[in-house]
């Protein structure tokens, strides 16, 4: 198992654990003005992929994005304008693979009241094939989930109970889940 950093930021990085080529590239669907981290507050607009609205907008279009630190190799999902490992602002937007493995998981038995009918459900930390990590629901029961289980990302519209607990600006944000691969 690798940590959440990856010093190889080439467009065809190799996962040292599997020796499989990982197709990771700068997101060609992101306008050039958003390809690198904003340097001033004026540059950080709501449609930037370095904001949660921009990240979820890209996710809704089927693109999972990360900010890739060009100084230390860390990938941040969702993207942020500064690296949380080294503090650098030398980041670029990079499309991420939608496959990975479960590295940790738990069962939610007492959810927020709006999701009471869904309990129990499983939440996992997934290490994507790029080395980035993303937390999300797993579509199988806790008893059927295991460490190193291969999974793939699925994206769907929020259901009514999920909308009931969302803030107004989050009502249309897609829900991401992981399914066994």
Keywords:
mainly beta, 4-stranded antiparallel sheet, 2 helices, globular, disordered N terminus
Structure description:
By secondary structure, the protein is mainly beta. A five-stranded mixed β-barrel has the order 5-6-7-9-8. A hairpin with a 5-residue loop joins strand 2 and strand 3. The longest helix has 9 residues. The N terminus is likely disordered.
Helix and strand element order: EHEEEEEEEHE
Radius of gyration: 17 Å
Number of helices: 2
Side-by-side strand order of the widest sheet: 5-6-7-9-8
Query: How many extended strands?
Result: 9
What percent of residues are in strands?
25-35%
Q: What class would the helix/strand composition place it in?
A: mainly beta
Mean pLDDT: 84
C-alpha termini separation: 18 Å
Q: What's the main sheet like?
A: 5 strands, mixed, barrel
- Overall 3D form: globular
In helices, the fraction of residues equals under 10%
The poorly predicted ranges are 1-24
